[in-house]
Design a protein that fits this description.
Length: about 100
């Protein structure tokens, strides 16, 4: 006989029902055809991972902010480089324009 595989969404639904305490774990186990020990494991896993849920979100936000800051710095550096090049080109080309106007 093949082992049953349950989706994370299904497991979350069952754990929520357990935490609501509207029905006992044995009632939920018989209702869904799952052993009580399995439900206990899912509940334990969910409660262990609950603090990490908020920690992971904070880390993800911090990572995105860091990436945006790095990209912003790179863009500012590029703007500075291009501004310097533009001013250098203006200095080189401006005298030539004056020379052309003198000959006309």
């Amino acid at each position: 006989m093949k082992r049953k595989r349950y989706t994370p969404a299904f497991k979350a639904q069952i754990v929520l029902e357990i935490l609501k305490e509207e029905k006992s774990m044995s009632e939920l186990a018989s209702e869904h055809g799952i052993h009580v020990n399995q439900l206990s494991q899912w509940k334990s896993q969910a409660l262990e991972q609950l603090p990490n849920l908020f920690d992971n979100q904070t880390k993800a936000v911090d990572k995105l902010k860091k990436e945006q800051d790095e990209e912003r710095e790179a863009l500012y550096a590029e703007v500075g480089k291009l501004t310097t090049q533009l001013s250098w080109l203006k200095k080189k080309i401006w005298p030539r324009k004056l020379e052309k106007n003198v000959w006309i």
